[in-house]
Amino acid sequence: MIRLSLLAAFAAFGLAACQATTAQAPAPQPVATATPSYVTRPDFRLPEGAGCAGEIARFRAVMDNDLATGHVTREVHGRVIADLRGPEGACSAGRDGEARGALTAVKRRYGYPG
């Protein structure tokens, strides 16, 4: 008789376990389709120009765009612009090769292709 009571208790316990509710996983959220804020404006154009002056102007425009889109901080942008004074000085003095070399060094220092 004890055995039968024990068996009935286990069966009742088993049924209770089957009836227990479990927390359901939340439904997957839809993927956001909003345009990211780190996108260059569609009207952005690189400056034209030849020689070291053109190259420096284009890199300055890239840096300004990277600041505007949040790819660099204001602090990094300021350091890059300050570092461009060397290449700009060499370029304005007519030392094209020196200016281009110094510009390449600035670009590489901040992770831009030279």
Description:
This protein has 114 residues and is mainly alpha-helical. 60% of the residues lie in helices and 0% in strands. Helix 2 (51-68) packs antiparallel against helix 3 (74-83) and helix 4 (85-92) runs antiparallel to helix 5 (96-109).
Salient structural properties:
single chain, 114 residues, mainly alpha, globular, disordered N terminus
Brief account:
By secondary structure, the chain is mainly α. The protein contains 5 helices and no strands.
Topology, pairings included?
Elements: H1 2-19, H2 51-68, H3 74-83, H4 85-92, H5 96-109
Helix pairs in contact: 2-3, 2-5, 4-5
Question: What Rg, in angstroms, do the CA atoms define?
Answer: 33 Å
Sheet/helix structural class: mainly alpha
Separation of the first and last Cα atoms: 90 Å
Strand elements, count: 0
Helix/strand order: HHHHH
Q: Mean of residue pLDDT?
A: 80
Q: Which residue ranges are poorly predicted, with pLDDT under 50 across at least 5 consecutive positions?
A: 1-10, 30-36
Helix-residue proportion: 55-70%
What's the oligomerization state?
Answer: single chain
- Tell me the β content: under 5%
Could you give a short account of the major beta sheet?
Answer: none
How does the overall form come out from the CA principal axes? globular
Total number of helices: 5
